[in-house]
Amino acid sequence: MKILVILCLSLLTSLSYAEIEHHDFQSLEQEQSYQTLISELRCLVCQNQTIADSNAALAKDLRRQVYEMLQQGQSQQQIADFMTERYGDFVLYNPNFNLKTGLLWLGPALFLLIGLIAVLLFARKKTNSESGLTDEQKSQLAKILDEGEKP
Amino acid sequence: MLKYLLPFLLFIALAVFLALGLKLNPKDIPSPLIDKPAPAFSLPILGIPEKKLSNQDLQGQVWLLNVWASWCASCREEHPVLLQLAQQSSVTLVGLNYKDQAYAAIEWLSNLGNPYTVSLMDSEGRTGIDYGVYGVPETFVIDKRGVIRYKHTGAVTADDLEKVFMPLINQLEAEVL
């Protein structure tokens, strides 16, 4: 009876193991390419996860696709292009620089530039009229100070 | 005057951008396949798995490719609209039965009605990847030359059918090769 129970339990564990993906790679380099690619491709179902992180069925299929293309000897760039042709630039976490993604890449630099210009303009305005007093007020002030110095 | 007007204008601009951003559907990712030839496939027909249909067989006519599955909840919502399309138009409606079990798909069609001219089995989702499918249901409109002209992600509503699909189908059918 005990043996039967143990046998049943061991069956259960093998079932849970079956869920883990197993890939055989031809070389360490290929495995690294695989890991790089799956952590740079976006899962389009759960949009803020990479296909490495996601459990969605599509992510699984795309991992399989990446693995198979690597086995066929395709380069990382070829695989990234394959995905972009089908899913658009959005599929890459580091999209290629082109007309559509230009604003995305240059936007932060553009905002920094706008900020710098604003700061410069502001600072210059400040130095031009340091005290914010008119000429009339200045001479008045000088007069008062002058009077104060006299014993 | 400018001192007060400028921040106000900047605020208006920001508000407009944010309002537009709220209206955008983040699930609606523009397809790079528009105006590109429909990716090739040759898939077994649902119900007659020994027979295959390829995209070449559909050349010369306007056709729709509707990606569906029996496990997909929005497909159930979309189904009556497709039945309506099949009734009011003679356009070829090809179903891509995506990552589904044949028996479940056949049962689904016999229970709810079959709007498709033909349904193809993409059980491993490979043709789905070629078409950039990420959310079922999706619908592609392909012209007589075999070029994808339009893609709709999510369930097609009666409104979409009337205002987008029917005018486009009529326009494409009027095109001369």
Task: Please provide a written account of the structure.
The complex is a heterodimer of chains A (151) and B (177). Chain A folds into two domains: 26-96, Cytochrome C biogenesis protein (Helicase, Ruva Protein, domain 3); 102-149. Helix content of chain A is 64%, strand content 0%. Chain A contains six helices and no strands. Chain A has helices at residues 2-17, 28-38, 57-71, 76-87, 102-128, 135-149. In chain A, helix 2 runs antiparallel to helix 3 (57-71). The longest helix of chain A has 27 residues, at 102-128. Chain A is elongated and about 115 Å long. The N and C termini of chain A lie far apart (115 Å). By secondary structure, chain B is an alpha/beta fold. Chain B has a single domain (36-174), classed as Glutaredoxin (3-Layer(aba) Sandwich). Helices cover 40% and strands 23% of the residues of chain B. In chain B, strands 5-4-3-6-7 form a five-stranded mixed β-sheet. A two-stranded antiparallel sheet of chain B has the order 1-2. Chain B is elongated. The relative contact order of chain B is 0.19.
